[in-house]
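Friendly challenge for the regulars: who can give me the structure tokens for this chain first? No prize, just bragging rights.
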Amino acid sequence: MKTTDKVRKLLHWQPQPKPHINLDTQIYGLLKPFRLPFILIVLTMMLGTIGYMVIDDFTLMDAVYQTGVTFTTVGFGEVAPISNQGRVFTVTLIIIGFLIFTISIGIVAEALKNGEILKLIKERNMLYKIARLKNHFVICYHNEFSSQVAKQLRQSHVPFVVVDPSDDLENIAKKHNYPFFVQADPHTTDAMLKSFLSSAKGLITLSNNIADNIATIASARLYEKEIGKETPYQIIAKANNLQDEDKILKLGADKVVIPTKLMAERVSSIAIRPDMINLIEKFIYSQDSVLAMEEVFVPKRSWLVLKKLRESRFRDVTNVSVVGIRRKDGIFISMPKGDEIVTSECKLLLIGKAEGIESTKQLINKETKPKELSYV
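First reply, four minutes later:
Bragging rights claimed.
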């Protein structure tokens, strides 16, 4: 191990995460027109320095300084007496400098005119910010639904990245307070790399076009297999009707939302059990609530696989209760008993404090039985 690596480990310094795509190649490509002015300036400085050293026996530093003030036509005068030959050389150097500056200004203005360089630099800075995110959500396609979802996630301090192909996405992001955004088609590889999907918790695709949602889900699941992600993405998608819902679920979505159906269920619930709905909103969805509810995935290598639920002892260790189990085949078991067997790749519906649920996740993801459970 290198000395620098040992020092970093000792001080708990972590290297800054880097994006999968940093746009350096594209930026360097746009900077190519700047090479000619730079080369001409360097050659002129070299020519002027050598000329003054040969013609008037200037020292190196005096020759460099005299060339600089002459080439830039600042008019600081002579650093030492110059012969007639030197003055002719000086006039020639001034003319060459004027021509080079004129050419350079035209080249630089043309390169900066379309704003592509500044646009790429802004995007590059955004990608580096996104690369620092972990367990974030990738929201695909901007519309009324996604803006409301982003608002709720922002209020709950859940990080997210909005991906949309719109040309004016930067203005949209400012209007709706999107802290992180990527202009791309969500189903493309570029979009997944730029949004740092490899570190994301899940993906939300809310396009009004079912074809867009299907393409995004299929691409995300394929990318999930390619990178060998142990915990599958939580994918939520929008559908327009029950037929679309069935298709999207078969393609790999975990949850499908139908706006009309959701509104109908919401209205009927409020009409039938208004007090219960208010209670749920207060304790589950309120920002200042002490309770949280979350489905936690049980990986194949978890120590809890094929163990009885009572062996988890979550209530004793983390003060979290398991109120439901969703099997891999989609079957949901509500209020499971202690004798219920926890199967591989199922999901446990947990309710408790946020920090308790987070601790429970860590216990579930361990491959060997946690030591904490030996004392309860």
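The chain has a mean pLDDT of 84. The chain is about 50% helix and 10% strand. Your move, everyone else.
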